Amino acid sequence: MIEVKKEFLDEAKAIHAESIIIDGHCDTILQMLPRIGVPDWKPRSILVRSDRGHVDLPRLMESHVTCQFFAIYTEPIYKPLKATARALEMMATFYEEVEKSEGKIIIVNNSKEIYKAKKEGKLAALISMEGGEPIQHNPIILRMFHKLGLRALSLTWNERNMLADGVGESRAQSKLTELGLKALEEASKLKILIDVSHLSDSCFWDLVENFKNPIIASHSNARAICNHRRNLTDEQLKAIAERGGVIGINFSSSFIVSGGRATIEDLIKHIDHMANVIGVKHVGLGSDYDGISSTPIGLEDVSKLPNLTAKLLEHGYSKSDVKKILGENFLRVISEVMG
Questions:
Q1: What is the rounded average pLDDT for all residues in the chain?
Q2: Which CATH architecture has domain 6-338?
């Protein structure tokens, strides 16, 4: 248990009720489908409150989350040849859940629709793709995913694919492939937001050199605080900030501290560091809920999000800065890229 002072928690809940809150990454769609090779796995609906996983509609609404990025992640067993079919299966399953929500969840394409969802008390769902394997060897396929609602793309997960290298291939010191550059060009035309989480360092810098739009790291932390390969160096943080981008803070304990289970105080060290290096206006939320095995104490699921807000207030962050971290920073980038 963590101690959250009542006066700060009360203020946090009031801030949540009035704020645009955006989480840049969760793997909850995987919770809805059968999974090969996962013993005793049972799919669950996100429309019903559950004691499994981290995210569902009732818990999102309880914390007043306005917009949740839902990732299409194709597990390694489907890569490369079955990745497209698996991605389409995931999107179809998610659309079915949206339809069953009877208007409580809406799939959004731009900032105006996010504002509208907030006004109407609905959950805005923004579809992202974690790893570009589903587009196979033809970026034109990205157009079809875009028509289905895809609005954000990370080129890789941890391994190498036909577009680039993930952090698991850092030894290669490679650049983006020609296909990767074409995918970026297509994404720019379609106004798809590019996400650099999971890219190897060398591919990160090649992307920065060859892509001029604002970029995000949807779920990464500060390597200066926790030396994990998935975290970002100060130089990478500055490069994202120079583009007007945003970094979503990841709630995985292994990305927050080097050993053991993290606390909210540990997580705030990453926020403090980023705020000092690049400014509060480039920091957001990227929980990675339903894709991580260990959350910080006090952030066990999305319903506990007000605890983080309360701790930020206790640490001296202003209401204005807290609102930026909760969602206004992500909303700015969404508005600039998608309209």
A1: 97
A2: Alpha-Beta Barrel (3.20)
